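Journal club side-thread
Mid-discussion, someone asked how the predicted structure for our own chain would compare to the paper's figures. Pasting it here so we can look after the session.
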Amino acid sequence: MKSYDVAVIGSGPGGYVAAIRCAQLGMKTAIIEKYATKGGTCLNVGCIPSKALLDSSHHYEDAVKHFEEHGIDIPGEIKVNLKNMMKRKDSVVEQTTKGIDFLMDKNKIDTYQGVGSFKSKTEVLITPDEGEEETIEAKNIIIATGSKPRTLPGIEIDKERIITSTEALSLQAIPKHLILIGGGVIGLELGQVYRRLGAEVTVVEYMDRIIPTMDQSMSKEMRKVVKKQGMDLKLSHEVKSVERKGKEVVVKAKDKKGNEVEFKGDYCLVSVGRVPFTKGLNPDQAGVEVNDRGQVKVNEKLQTTTDNIYAIGDVIQGAMLAHKAEEEGTFVAEVIAGQKPHIDYNLIPNVVYTWPEVAGVGKTEDQLKEDGVDYKVGEFPMKALGRSRASGDIAGLVKILADKNTDEVLGVHMIGARTADLIAEAVTAMEFRASAEDIARMSHAHPTYAEAVKEAALAATEDRALHI
């Protein structure tokens, strides 16, 4: 039996980063992955392929709608080649997952393909698709098994017409009418992909707003944007049933008045979040407890109820974000090495990769109200920027929330071009407990989208915005 200092079960962003950091710290490390390719949901059927399709569909939309105004004339009809679009997406995924193989080799991490399950608190049984089972031993074990798409009671996912995000990333035809159940991050991103390619898109959302976990101002602005793009939003609708009739899918729901309504399309994407994945793990064999939501129980050091076993990422409580999992992977490796790392969960940014992008970090305005915090608001519209007018990306705004008494920045929320990248400025500032005035006094290059951050900070500092 091979022995290791650390064995990691799962090779998603949390798992492979944990393995690399353990190896960097001098620990003999193994990683176990049940699928043939590493990278977990994010690299294979999540973050990476969805961004590839978002970018490809964005290029198509620009060519159809905006090239002419930029003085670019394309003779003949512009057509979507979905086969080639999917081929490029697959190529991006392949390159990225092979990059993980390279990193494992570079850091001398032993890799095993198969389902990892506990035999005891220090032994992991590896069951491959083909071949013999194998058991390895490890002083410490990290659970990084991730999550899977959630569904609603009574809805049967057939993976053909009633689908999850996994199937939506590999459709062989553009839907005529795509019905989205759920107006959150995944639904809006994939809805925007197929809307750009010509599909009719209807969003059926239980809450009274889309992207409900983001600041309410972002939800309102995003609602205007997607309606302008042609999505049909059905808010405050409770889905009661989804039924397939040949090539047609019928979704029945109740609106906010209690009336039954019906939507018909050729595809229905169920996008109502994700749930922790522990199938085949056998945590009981190691004394690892799981709560009634399927999450592995952990303490502040991310230790499970068995002290040499840790858990990170989507399989524990908290936001299901790849970068959260990465931070936790690094954190656990350093805890095992005897260091004293920290994670500030308030400073884990959240991003929606639609266009315009939406990003936020820290407290929302609703949370500050609920906590009784005396705060002030600074806002600046993207349309007031020279850079936005030059690129034609005038939708959106930056909103800074600061403590009314100390001026410390408590939350930053933005919607606009490249806000997924801009949010890092806010995270950096808040990590060092910057005031709105600190950001306002920083020089921002002109012309850039980042100037909106400075202007919002000026607006929060005695209403001093210069360009509105």
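Post-session note: The mean pLDDT is 97.
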